Amino acid sequence: EAAGAWRGRIAEHMAAAGGPLPRIAAHWQAAGHWALAGRAYSDAAAEIRRQMRQLEEVALLSQAVECHAAALDADSEVEAWKDLYLAQWRRKNRAGIREAVMHLQALQSTSPRARMWALACAGQLGLDERQDDASLSLVTQAREQAQALGEAEVVVWTSSIEAHSHALRNRPLQALEGGRCCMALADGLPHSVFSLGAVFNVGSALELS
Q1: What pTM was computed for the model?
Q2: How far apart are CA 190 and CA 125, in angstroms?
């Protein structure tokens, strides 16, 4: 208990001094301050992501999901698993992608946003592996959920996945229509992993069509 309190004081001092986030997170974790540790690990992962240090990002997010789970913060845990899914997707780590999808599906009943991410990620993985109607339906449901939540970037991203799937499955009219709608929706959105991913998906769809 005394050691935990000491580690907590170290974390407070380092945070006030603008110390490195991974070390601050580790001290909060050792002190048993799970919410603070999870937030610090997630912030550290975002910082590392901007530097394209993928292995370190995955390691930090893996710690983040554990801390958010220990803090019983389902919303933050979902966000961390979503980020971990995307990080593993960029690394093409199939086992890591599947693990993230499994956890997102387990958390999908905790909130509408959690359901949106579970549907989107499971659908994208399914289309990448099988290109089946069931997986396309999951992506469509994710898009509809994103529309209901006002998540414009996710609407664009999932729409682009739908368009790309139609193109791969020799449905040129649906692919072209989906691509045009997606690009219209994307106009004015800030550049992000979702908007940039949408541009790639739509470009591929239009080329295939």
Answers
A1: 0.86
A2: 25
Kindly report the backbone phi and psi dihedral angles of residue 169, in degrees, each rounded to the nearest multiple of 5, phi listed first.
-100, 20
Condensed to tens digits (0 to 9), the pLDDT of residues 32-69 reads 999 999 999 999 999 999 999 999 999 999 999 999 99
Question: What tens digit of pLDDT does each residue of 86-108 get?
Answer: 999 999 999 999 999 999 999 99
**Environment class of residue 184 by beta-carbon count within 10 Å: exposed (0-12), middle (13-18) or buried (19+)?**
exposed
The Cα–Cα gap between 114 and 120 comes to 10
Q: Which residues of 89-127 are buried (b: 16+ CB within 10 A; e: fewer)?
A: beeeeeebbebbbebbbebbeeeebbbbbbbbbbbbbbb
Distance of alpha carbon 87 from alpha carbon 31, whole angstroms: 28
